[in-house]
Write a structure and sequence with these properties.
Layout (H helix, E strand, L loop, with lengths): L1 H19 L1 E3 L5 E3 L4 H18 L2 E2 L3 H15 L6 E5 L6 E4 L3 E5 H6 L3 H16 L2 H11 L6 H6 L4 H9 L2 E2 L4 E2 L4 H17 L5 H14 L5 H4 L5 H24 L9
Parallel strand pairs: 4-6
Antiparallel strand pairs: 1-2, 3-4, 5-6, 7-8
Bound molecules: zinc ion (ZN).
Length: 265
Amino acid sequence: MRLISNLSIWIVLLCILLLSACATSPTGRTQLAFMPDAEIDSMGLQAFENLKKEKPIEQSGKKVQFVNCVAQAVTREVGGEWEVVVFDDASLNAFALPGRKIGVHTGLIQLVDNQDQLAAVIGHEIGHVLARHSNERMSQQVSTNLGLSIVQAVAAPTTPLGQAAVSALGVGAQYGVIMPFSRLHESEADIIGIDLMAKAGFNPVESINLWKKMSQASHGNQPPEFLSTHPSHDTRIEDLQARLAIAQPLYQQAVAAGKKPKCVK
Ligand SMILES: [Zn+2]
């Protein structure tokens, strides 16, 4: 009996792998991402709700207006309703979760010089979501544990396996910890982010200034989302500079089309 049920799990997994294992990210990269997106979204939503319960939230005021203004302009390019929350936290951090959720820490708002730098961060975070990095990370984790059922993991977030799945999502739901992405995912989010901010009418050159500032401000003390597994600062800045060849024309088109956000810090 045990052999049969193990066998059926293998067959189910194999079918899932063969049918939909290979997806393509927005940059054209082939990725292994076979988890149901609806499940990933509901996990993102759950993790976001937990964070909102655990962490103090800035409800109103200039910072909230500033973040909402920038986030609205950027998400307009992507579509859908995004929930944006400003967390009262001095660390230099921001994140986006599947299910269209964005969190920005007050420390990061303080760091940025202008709307364009904040748009660079938000674009980068949305890049992770658009490229389904959580799905890919979870799929990788599941495929390395092929004896275990995917359905089990997603349906039971309180079990150890479920916890592993939730942390693959990017947020340890229980502790509100944001897990680092891989270098590959970081570089991809950078590329998607700089294009996205430019399309929304934000100056893509500021993404380079932002990462320089981040590098100085972190003093080797790396904030969790951005820097822990990040491409080195030099590589990242070189890559972004190279991408300006594509992002600058997108920016000019956006401005010509009347997209001129005026978000005041
Ligand atoms: Zn990132």
